[in-house]
Amino acid sequence: MFKLRADWVHIDVMDGHFVPNLTMGPPIISSLRKAVPRGQKDGQTTHFFDCHMMVANPEQWVPEVAKAGGDQYTFHYEATKDPVKLVKLIKSHGLKAACAIKPGTSVEVLYPLADKLDMALVMTVEPGFGGQKFMADMMPKVEALRAKFPNLDIQVDGGLGKETIGVAADAGANVIVAGSSVFGAKDPGEVIRYLRDTVENAQKKAKAKPKPNL
């Protein structure tokens, strides 16, 4: 994917508790990092690991993900009692900090956190399984975040592809998670280019500042 000009690899970590599915954990992240090392000596990676932690106790895994080679730690607001303390913990381990909200969670919970975050993630499906249908009714959340925080990276995750990228980009999302639409395509590189071009064009219209990442 990096050779096809994907900016990040989005790694879904699920514990079978916060969501019913069970997927990879820190040992797999560590193995991936050995196979795909950071690209520059100054530590500014060109092979960015965006770790989406769909886990019931996100505080527990921060040291492990940092040690394994993660770059960004995205926790779910619904999974922690003290998100501010968790953000501080994440950053103390040298990771970027991001917070995700499920479809049923109000976007307003992110407002007090936004100036402390590197990114906010608005889920556009229920977390836990791939291949779900994009929930367009989540776009007002993205629009509200972009209006209040014009320089914040805003990610959308779930059901993103050629048919749905336009509405997400127009709402203000600049970080796009695409799984099935890329990996299931005959030409994944062409899909990545299409998604990036759509976001860049939307940003030009809105004169937005955050860089698109896919």
Query: Largest beta sheet, briefly?
Result: 7 strands, parallel
Order of helix and strand elements from N to C terminus: EHEHEHEEHEHEHH
Shape: globular
Q: Write down the Rg.
A: 16 Å
Low-confidence stretches: none
Structural class: alpha/beta
Structure notes:
This protein has 214 residues and is an alpha/beta fold. The chain has seven helices and seven strands. The chain has a seven-stranded parallel β-sheet. Helix 1 runs parallel beside helix 2. The longest helix is centred in the last third of the chain and has 19 residues, at 188-206.
Give the structure's gist in a few sentences.
Helix content is 33%, strand content 18%. It has helices spanning 26-35, 58-68, 83-92, 139-148, 165-171, 180-183, 188-206, and strands at residues 8-14, 48-54, 72-76, 96-101, 119-123, 153-157, 175-177.
Task: Looking at this protein, list some descriptive labels.
7 helices; 214 residues; alpha/beta; seven-stranded parallel β-sheet
How are the secondary structure elements laid out?
Blueprint: E1 8-14, H1 26-35, E2 48-54, H2 58-68, E3 72-76, H3 83-92, E4 96-101, E5 119-123, H4 139-148, E6 153-157, H5 165-171, E7 175-177, H6 180-183, H7 188-206
